[in-house]
Amino acid sequence: MPPTATSALAPPSDATRRTSKPDKPFDDRRVVGPSAKLAPLSDHLLPLKRTILAELGTSPEQLEQSWRGVLAALEVHTAKIAQQGGDAIPHVHYKDIEKGISEEQKVIIRDAGCVVVQGAVSEEEAVGWETSLKDLVKAHPGIQGYPSHDPQAYELYNTQAQTRARTHPAVLNTQKALLKFWGSSLPRASADGEDLVDYDTPVSYYDRLRLRKPGDRSFVLGPHIDGGCVERWEDPVYRKVWGKILSGGDSWKEYDPYDARWRLGAKQDLYGVPNQCTAHRSWQGWTSISHNAAGEGTLQLLPMLRLATAYVILRPFFRPRDPSSGSLHPDDWELDLDSAMFPGSRIGASGQELSVESHPHLRLEKTMVSIPRTRPGDQVYWHCDGVHAVEGYHGGKNLSSVMYIPAAPLCMKNARYLRDQRVNFVHGHVAPDFPASAGESTFPERGTTRDIKTDEGHRALGFMPFEVHAPELVPLVDAANAALFGQ
Ligand SMILES: [Fe+2]
After folding, report:
1. What gap in Å lies between CA 177 and CA 279, rounded to an integer?
2. How many CB atoms lie within 10 A of CB 176?
3. What's the gap in Å between 323 CA and the centre of ligand 1?
4. What percent of the chain has pLDDT over 90?
């Protein structure tokens, strides 16, 4: 039996602990009209664009050079993706992960910012998870979810199936391989561990699950990026992530999406929004527990990470000279430095919305490609800045079922979140970043530590002290264990 922290069993009234966020319908962030997306935001943002340029010493002319360079590159890359379709999304077999991904595969995955991993969990085991979830939903009518009138993405965080999947050795092994894409330029010395990240140690970030019905058209989730909205520009630390993109000229080409340096201190949630991730979630992801094919309500991705990010970050600084022309030519766009226009952003939204109207140069109508067919037990991961959506219609014959399981590394930001998430898990409550609801506290069959089969799994969920993998990580491991176990 692994050591279990007494603090893990503390009652949920612990005043120092963050609780789940105020109840706000799951639907809120998804239904955004085009006019709302293109309206100016609050007046307090009026000076923001010039402030950002002044911080970096970037002249308007230099920024315009970057814009033109990004638009030219987009013309080439969007055409390529439109031609490739689903083939633009890399896939690897789990056996490749076990052997070690080749350098060639790494480059492809790094550039696309997404990957499908096939065959990690056995089909039989994954289907068993889906069956148990269907039984659970049937046994507890009234579980909340999205859409609210006919839930298909359920407010379930603590089921046995999720617990087993999150701690499955092949899932954790996959996550370790993908977390290694990050962190090449992090500082390697920190007395208190705050600046350190251990990319060899995945920790679990709880999210929900989806059992989408055949024929469904109500699960509306257009192109978006999670991890905050206007916070990308407004938060003084978060915007440092985009320093290279906003420094003018060709510097955007040096932007490294896998540099976590500023992300640890970034506030992605300035407005206390439910569903907003406050952890360092390197890769978003899901594990398939059914067959999911294109046209069957599956995930769509824009497999072009660095260039798309550069465009999204530069976009608020420019506007069309004549919005009615629809022209994408750089000469028909001009600087916009004194407005509160942040197309696709809203104050207090959990994600950055994108559409053909707000981000026309991404040619989303052609570049949002459905992922290749996944079988039960396959996994999909996409970078935390990756543009993603869900097909509007499920034209298949069976449930399209996935459990949202991302990849997050050990760092102090995540250790503190894990501490609070652990308490909620023990009591069957909603995970801290999500809207408060009745939770699963009265479900006798919910997940427990008995569903975790390995030491690594216990560590990932915060029930066993972390181990040191490299001497420079001692301050982090010590601080994380102190936060979780009071050692
Ligand atoms: Fe999302």
Report:
1. 20
2. 17
3. 28
4. 78
23 band by pLDDT with thresholds 50, 70 and 90: low
CA of 253 to the centre of ligand 1 (A): 26
Tracing tokens 């003084």 back to the chain, one arrives at: 236
Domains in the chain: boundaries: 6-10+19-25+37-485
Q: Ligand 1 mean position to 45 CA, how many Å?
A: 25
DSSP 357-396: TTSGGG-HHHH-EEPPPB-TT-EEEEETT--EEE-S-B-S
Higher pLDDT residue, 3 or 346? 346
Question: How far, in Å, from the CA of 122 to the mean position of ligand 1?
Answer: 26
The rounded Å distance from CA 388 to ligand 1 centre is 6
**CATH for 6-10+19-25+37-485, options being 3.30.230.30, 2.60.120.330, 1.20.120.140, 2.60.40.10:** 2.60.120.330
User: Smallest Cα–Cα separation from 81: which of 366, 483, 321, 354?
Assistant: 366
- Which sign, positive or negative, has the C-alpha torsion 16, 19, 24, 30? positive
Q: How far is CA 309 from the centre of its chain?
A: 14
Separation of CA 389 and ligand 1 centre (Å): 7
Distance 348 CA to ligand 1 centre (A): 15
Distance from Cα 99 to the centre of ligand 1, integer Å: 31
